[in-house]
Amino acid sequence: MFICEECGYRSVKWLGKCLGCGSWESFVEEIKVDKKVEHEKLTPKAVREIEISSNHRFKSGIAELDRVLGGGLTKGSVVLFSGAPGIGKSTILLQAMSKYAANSNAIYVSGEESEEQIKSRAVRVGIEDLKVISSTNIDAILNACKDASVVAIDSIQTMGNSDISGSISQIRESISKIINLAKTKGISFIVIGHVNKEGKIAGPKMLEHMVDTVVELEGDRDLQYRILRTVKNRFGSINEVGVFKMTSSGMEEVTNPSELFISNSTSEPGSIIAPIIEGNRVFLVEIQSLVSPASLGIPRRISQGMDSSFVQILSAVCEKSLNLNLSSRDIYFNIPGGIKTKDTSIGLALILSIYSSYNNRPIDVAAVGEVGLTGELRKVSFLDLRVKELARLGFKKIVVPNKIPVGKGVELIVIKNIKEIPGLLSD
Ligand code: TYD
Ligand code: MG
Fold first, then answer.
1. Which of 8, 85, 200, 393 is most exposed, with minimal Cβ within 10 Å?
2. Ligand 1 atom having least distance to the Cα of 192
3. Residues 25 and 106 in one domain
């Protein structure tokens, strides 16, 4: 039987295009195996009888990476490292592998680059002591890695074997072989998977279900900053992010992201500082709006870093509650630095930035608060942590939805509705 991996459509023949969902090359063969295991005897066990073997973790020493992996790379686990082409996956992995190599048997396998290409990249990022293999033959590779403790496969899309054809079944077959070796020999694997334009890992979605951990590297290729995010982790929390910066000699970790996303000249009209929570960390970003006369009939709302429906809704709330004539204006929104956020607590900062740009006057406050449709301020999670981070970086005047205890020198301005904004600025 052939089964579509996207929708589960069944067919006795292999099909290039699925009749069920229209996906291309999504069919894999499923072979029925005789069920001899039916009579296996299973005995239920009390929870207290189950012993937990302490999972050994390999630390790379790159704190931003170790944290995203849940405190290190678990022995015998398979990590899928995904991201768009050119984002920096090979670079970061090569650097991490050289750190693992310092106290374990680590091998970096590339199916994308020749030995010379790997060497020139390694030299660029200052690496000499790492064993590498350049090949796409998964069986030969796994055979050569039997005694390793940490293996990187760059990338799963290039791996295969002559006896299977069709890219998707090849990927599935290769990952199965990797997982099998990881579990039987206790070898940890980090496997790179390219993501296509739609943001899906090229190849079957099921790749994500098969591996233990999925991390994703995101960011704008043209900007320096990269965020590594845990998407799935059987051995840790998924609420982790690591921040990196691409430099001319490899990826550098950014331990203090707040300082990186805010500029020195934030007292310009249209710019307000807001704290966002990514994973378990708070950092500050600059929310920018540019209100300008509409050039076409329909006013435009163009946003970068924020959801476009989010900025449209808040523009409408701002227009109504603050009585601004925005229907004849275009508004451009941006969070500099290539950060994307879904944190709705930036709503108040966004509205303040619109108001500031509209009136062409700077507003010298930072802001935290979610804004509802009637302009009411709503409480946000971890307000104390957000205010603390603002205070740490020297922001003393902060508009918030509710009062909390703060340190000396920090002034909280509590507002209940955005209608109070004009009064705030009357000085
Ligand atoms: P790469 O790691 O090859 O991306 P991926 O494996 O995700 O496809 O890195 C891509 C880009 O990074 C490439 O355009 C060159 C640039 N780069 C640097 O800026 N600094 C460096 O030290 C290296 C090795 C690459
Ligand atoms: Mg690469």
1. 8
2. 6
3. no
